[in-house]
Fold each of these.
Amino acid sequence: MRFAATTQSEAATLALGERLGALLQGGDVVLLDGVLGAGKTRLAKGIALGLGVTQELTSPTFNLMLEYPLAADTTQERLSTTPNTADKQLTTPRPEMPPCPETTTPTPPLPTTLRHFDLYRLDAVEQLADLDYFGLIEEEDAVSLVEWGGRFAEGLPLAYLAIQMKVSSVHPEQRVLSFEACGPRAEALLARFAALDTAGQHD
Ligand SMILES: Nc1ncnc2c1ncn2[C@@H]1O[C@H](COP(=O)(O)OP(=O)(O)O)[C@@H](O)[C@H]1O
Ligand SMILES: [Mg+2]
């Protein structure tokens, strides 16, 4: 499934992230791609808010990965959403992503940790092993956000929600977000998000 949304401001990107974050479950992996300044970290901040993170989320460009605990009591209360100001449309497939491998769908536990990765400074896919990237993103009680997550084709997880952010040529504060789900759980997540966003737009 693919889906696209346009935000008109940084605040709208934060709000979109918050709506998505409220839907995330343990084991979910969200890949964020787009040029420097596209808004990946702003979107990640919104997602963290939606997950109930109260700590300020900072860019992990120099740390490669930063970790945030998720309070057990907020994970149950995350389903209220912020107003939707995004426009959306169906998009054509992104050509650069390989086909999704089949995966199973176990019941996800409540997430206890948010891990925010940034692969920008990595030179080679082999360096992901030094980070224990694949071990960490497979943890079923953690949510993983990965800036530049689509950077290495061989470094793609088995299942993920990928969000490509583009700076609009029309307006400097406009961003076009293209969503692509890989794997049944990510498909279900994107379907929930798209349904919510559609409902929001009709308000
Ligand atoms: N609609 C928008 N969504 C997100 N960021 C925006 C938007 N419009 C302008 N900006 C600005 O773009 C920049 C995005 O920075 P950042 O999130 O750090 O990008 P990245 O992590 O992709 O390098 C910020 O300075 C932000 O204020
Ligand atoms: Mg960033």
Note: Residues 7, 9-10, 12-13, 34, 36-42, 147, 173, 175 surround adenosine-5'-diphosphate (ligand 1) (CB under 6 Å).
Amino acid sequence: MTINKTFSEILAPISEAEFFDAYYDKKPLHIPGDPGKFPNLMDFDILSRILGLNSIWTADTLGLMLDNTQVPREKYCDPGSRDGRSVLIPNAEKVGGFLQAGASLVAIDIDTLTPEISALADTLEDSLSAKAQANLYFSSQRRQAFASHFDTHDVYAFHTVGEKVWRIYENREPHPIRHAAFKVPPEQAKARRGGVLMDVTMKPGDLLYIPRGQYHDALASDDFAMHIAMGVTGIIGYDLVSALLERTMHDERFRVNFPRAALGRGALKTRIETLGAAIAEIAASDSFIDQFSQYQQRFRNNRMKLSLPVPVAEEVLRVKTPGLAVKSVQGRPVLASASGAMPIPPGKEKIAAWIVAQDRFTAHQAASALSEFDLLTVNETINDFRKMGLVAGAGAS
Ligand SMILES: [Fe+2]
């Protein structure tokens, strides 16, 4: 059974209040746990099982890192096709070979692959009003998979197997986002990361929070180490600008031409000030705030959750044309009405006769009454009647 942990249980023994006051978006936090804190979150059996879901993995979702460098995808994948498109599909034997050689495995977007990871992602999203995305990192030797870097989202790293030493550096890039403008090449990262802020040895059940932009790296200190990194991205001011962009398009004031350049800087400044005030007015309006609040509430990754079985709402059908009857004309079965007759495909006359004798019926009732026929044939006949307009939903005219 999946144990859904609340955000305070995830953070325990640190309280939520303490986390938000002292750490959230401020500084890293290591919360030691015990191996039972996040049951069934990830182990070798679970990893083997999800890696066996062959149909989901491609070179984009399954990567290998060797000594700070990405292993070229062609080296561990075979060409294949999915949904009619050419893709590179990881080959288990080749992947195993690289793991044997000390590579680290990175599995991207695993947050829907087990109920436990999915529940954890949901809790983070609900508590942080943000989108959570899970990646798995598995190293098979004491090697460094990633050079010092920062992430463009907050990281909540859940350690599950073995031990790994993380080094957190003092410096933090000021709220970087995923855009080329914020890329820092590895050689520059070394110069910008600053001194060591903390060394953290992560053990199963431990959680490490690293705010967006904080430099870090990690080195497996066991032969096998595994963690799940939840990358959490919230709404930022830039999203407000995007929402306003959409809103201003529907406002005529923003569709009027600007004063011509010949009218001078003064005219330009006046227009900019007028529109600036209009933006401020829109942003402060109740309707915009309501709209943005709805956007915030919907700001989640959509994980499909169906509780099966879904009760079937059976449609009640009725025969639309009165006076229909199954007759035999020159030895062949026909469906006769006041306006004429049409042939019935051989073998379906009994089904047709049953349908026309009904006042109202459901597909389920037809299947029970005509149990000597297979379900497919019964449904097919009902559908043929529908297409010919002889049968319709009881609610339809
Ligand atoms: Fe990272």
Note: The chain has twelve helices and 19 strands.
Amino acid sequence: MMVAGVCSVKPARGVAVRVDSGGDGTYIPCMSLAYLLLDLDKTVYPASSTLGREIDDRMTGFVARKLGVSEERAHEMRELNFPRFGSTIRWLMEEHGLEDPESFLQPTHPEDVAPFLAPDPRVRAAIESIPLPRSILTNAIVEHAERVLAFYGIRDLFERVFDLRFNVYRGKPDPAAYRRVLEAIGRSPEEVLFVDDYPVYLEPFRAMGGKVLLVSPEGASDLPRIGSILELPAWLERSSLVRA
Ligand SMILES: [Mg+2]
């Protein structure tokens, strides 16, 4: 594969080219792609893995203890406030006086990720086959990202890991987080494909002119989608964003 410098179909100004992205009729602007930004949790590893559930349960437990409510109620409150704040940590900081974000971040990310993940050499093969420079953009902490990347043996495939500290504890979906990362990698949004498992994290980047792709077993939005990271190389080829 090579990175496409121009589209195979030259569009009129402002016209998008229709591509086959799994039959969902997605339109993607025909421009060259120069960089890949990948989310970490439930994007690099599958949503079905127990790591995502473990982090989620730990966050719910933290909220239950902090607010003195049942875990069931804590879970409901997290779900309820997610659309408004975009993350549990923002909600706790803005509405419940959480002053030390590290006191939330450290214990909610397990120090040993191996019990929650299954080795899969296809993850490295898939990411390595994509002929673009890449970085991770996560709302977790860099230590957690490093553990997951080390588990899959893929740390060397990424230039940078942009974590929540890099984004001064105000990460996705705040547009400022995307702008900070774009500045750090020296790219315009149009040159970047951002891949994440949360539609609400993709939409602000798309609104900035960036290319986005949802990783999810279920298609519940109008966003272009793949079922797992293993499908990314084939999706890129089909989309004409990179050419064989
Ligand atoms: Mg994620």
Note: Residues 39, 41-43, 196-198 surround magnesium ion (CB under 6 Å).
